[in-house]
Amino acid sequence: MSWGEFRYSLRMVVKTPGVSAVAVLSLALGIGANTAVFSIIDALLLKRLPVKSPQELYRVTAGEDRSSWNYPDFVAFRDHSTSITLAACTGGMQRLGMQLADADSATPAEIVNATVVSGNYFAVLGVEPALGRVLNGGDDRAPGASPYVALSHNYWQSRFGSDPRVVGRKIRLNGYPFTIVGVSRRGFHGTDPSAFPDIFVPALMYSEISGQPFTLWNTRHWWWLTVIGRIKPGSITKQAETEIFAVYHEQEQTELRTVQDQRFVNRAQPIVLQPAATGHSYFRTRLEKPLLILMSVVGLVLLIACANVASLMLVRGTARQREMALRLAVGATRARLTGQLLVESVIIALSGGIAGLLLSHFGTGALLTFVAAAESDPGSMRISPDLRLLGFVAAVSLLTGVLSGIVPALRATKVDPMVALRYE
Fold this sequence. Notes:
Blueprint: H1 3-15, H2 17-46, E1 57-62, H3 71-80, E2 84-90, E3 94-100, E4 110-117, H4 121-125, E5 129-132, E6 148-151, H5 153-160, E7 170-173, E8 176-184, E9 199-202, H6 206-210, H7 214-217, E10 225-231, H8 237-258, E11 271-275, H9 282-319, H10 321-329, H11 334-374, H12 387-413, H13 417-420
Parallel strand pairs: 4-9, 6-8
Antiparallel strand pairs: 1-10, 1-11, 2-10, 3-4, 3-7, 5-8, 6-9, 7-8
């Protein structure tokens, strides 16, 4: 199709503003609803973590229902596994009060989202700092010995205005003094796609931010950690599972030798390594099925919108039969006319896609607000348009343009010029 023919198609769309506006609005509602739901599904279920070789990451689970771990078992897994390099992070975020150390003591604390991670967390994931350093293995020396934190890139930008002098600055978290040692790289928000932490805190500083004594949470019965790891080159998941189970079993035997009431011993269960290329999220587990059902529903809504637009195009095509007959009579081919009518449908669908993308911004916010009201721990999920979302909108718009336009285009060009022009 030439540029001139495209301009002609565009003029035909503008020439019938009422029909075009109704068609665009119908498709905008359908595409907007699908885009809003897809944006959440993509963020929670599909998008891979922005880390080095995410396909090598696995989450450690046991039995049918154990996905969280205690700190002693994590340390045993980390120190005695040769097939997998392990790191840990909390299953949820902590809401902490943050004050700048040089601020007036009367200044109210800001609420920040913090997550507790092991010292080797960033190294295992292959995440480099954007500024200063991130947490490392040296921050796992002893309880309370590493009063350091790393900031997320977003928080560094929004709170500190990307000031490079933030490294070395003192802050207080829940009243305890910490030093900012660095900023994680842009785009990294941890391994939970539903959580956007502002601050990363060493796990061995948990007592200082929570007020819980080390002797309380450093037991085999304080379940609070998600354990993830990277399979080492040459190893396989079955080998790693067997190795971790052996360590787990030894932990059980040690507790049996030291605990009098053996009814409460943490019994070893079969280890299962689950792929963690898309991260981990308790939030995702609760929402996966409802989101897929909702996606099916809004997909049906879009099909209904396509049917409505197809009906409008049929009416519009009937009114243009004389035009089609004249063009066929002077030598235009049916295939060329069908293509032009399809272009008109695609123009309408793309316009609906652009409007739908704008509507999806409000739809996504409404969905997240609804989820926040229904869930006790909705995390701090944030969704912003990216190339994947734009690609989805473009693909859906093109598909709806073809689906809603192909039948009307074929019907409109299936005309006998001799009959259509007989009484002209």
